[in-house]
Amino acid sequence: MSHLQEPRPGIGHNAPSADSERAGREGAVDYDDGLLAVAGPIMMLAYAGALGVAAFTFFGSGDALFAVVISIGFALTFFLVPLLMRRVRAARDQRWQRDTAHRTSAMVDLWTGPIRRWEGVAQIISVPLAVLFGFTALAVIWTVTA
Fold first, then answer.
1. Which of 35, 85, 104, 106 counts the most CB atoms within 10 A of its CB?
2. pTM for this predicted structure
3. Residue 53: how many CB atoms within 10 A of its CB?
4. How far apart are CA 24 and CA 13, in angstroms?
5. Comparing C-alpha atoms, which of 13, 25, 7 is closest to residue 94?
6. What is the DSSP letter of 121?
7. Pick from 110, 105, 136, 116: nearest CA to 34
């Protein structure tokens, strides 16, 4: 039997996985770089603004407003699930550490290499801000032509 087919003790019993035990022995650590603490609220406000613009724009049309309500439900799920997973990770994953040096350094490490902190935040918030701009432009065009 290969190592992939062997039964592993502790599966389904809240036992630490082999990967987390190995990481603990090897000293692997995952640090919070603080980018989401800055960019997360900006993202949420941008999407909330876009959905608010859409709701205000389509308030008179029931079908379009229904689509906006569904989008609001999706947005809540989109943001709440990662927040809940983040809390679970912080409570249970011993590799996850909050380190002030990593949260306040001028440079952050990404998979593609180190970049400045403001560049990382700009990369994260560029799409939500573009969506807000797009929804606002659509609302202006919709109201002008209607």
1. 35
2. 0.68
3. 19
4. 19
5. 25
6. H
7. 105
